[in-house]
Amino acid sequence: MEFIDYYKILGVEKTASQEDIKKAYRKLARKHHPDLNPNDKEAHKKFQKINEANEVLSDPENRKKYDQYGKDWKHGEEFEKARRQQSQYANTRGNGGQAFSGTFGDDDFSEFFSSMFGGGRTSRARETKFRGQDYEAELHVGLKDAYVTHPQTLTIDGKNIRIKIPAGVEDGQKIKLKGYGGAGINGGPNGDLYITFHIEKDSKFKRVGNDLYTTEEIDLYTAVLGGEVMIDTLSGKVKLKVAPETQNETKIRLRGKGFPVYKKENEFGDLYITYRIKLPSGLSEKERELFSELAKLSS
Fold first, then answer.
1. Which CATH number is 135-199 given?
2. CATH of domain 206-298
3. How far is CA 208 from the centre of its chain?
4. Using an 8 Å Cβ cutoff, are 269 and 262 in contact?
5. Coil, strand, or helix at residue 170?
6. pTM to 2 decimal places
7. pLDDT tens-digit profile of 234-249?
8. 273 contacts 251 by C-beta, under 8 angstroms
9. Residues 140 and 34 sit within 8 Å (Cβ to Cβ)
10. Rounded to 10 degrees, what is the CA torsion of 38, 161, 191, 76?
11. How many Cβ atoms are within 10 Å of 175's Cβ, its own excluded?
12. Can you spell out the DSSP letters for 91-106?
């Protein structure tokens, strides 16, 4: 995996304070947020990089490891452990099994890393393998797109990764793609890719779990006399019968017309529809007379 300069991504110096990093992140996140740049794929990529940089540099412990180990910062503890083992091994070999209280100098440390990645003197060091770095990514998906299983291409570290998004994925849900993270070190296994989904709000439907909620306008005459209306669902239009004397805010349920249940074939939530009665406007004189007669009859 190539080295990614997180300081450069956020536009701060390596000596920047935690507050400076926080301010830089907020400024860039607002500028490149997908909701503000819905049709700008480059802005989406930058937003992912900005989040990745912030996750590392906003955490003092992670930042310390990143400053010391660069692209291999997630393996810092493993490096230290292997370094101690190598030191003990070398001390034992050099002193006939006796304990040694010396220090491990910078030159030795560099030589250790060289040996650990294949250029060293001992087969034990060359055989040390490390798992690749795990990647985190965010993916913004429209409600209608999340309704069906569909392919999606992600760009991770300059590489295009084509994945299949299962129907019914939820907002905030995180899935793991095994082996799609950073390359393993010294022949070790690749890391994993963790994707967090953000389902964008829809102007027509509101999702609650696997159920959908919507409103539908019907005219006064249909509400009073009954009739038929065409209702939009995510799977197409449906014709419904409206009962006579339907009241405003009447709710009905369409079973199985909600959202698909994640990874459960042919299982769906329900669709709840609230009727909103639209009163007529721009009445003619004749219509006013008729409404007046109705008012007298009702009284």
1. 2.60.260.20
2. 2.60.260.20
3. 18
4. no
5. coil
6. 0.56
7. 999 999 999 999 999 9
8. yes
9. yes
10. -60
11. 15
12. HHHHTTT--------H
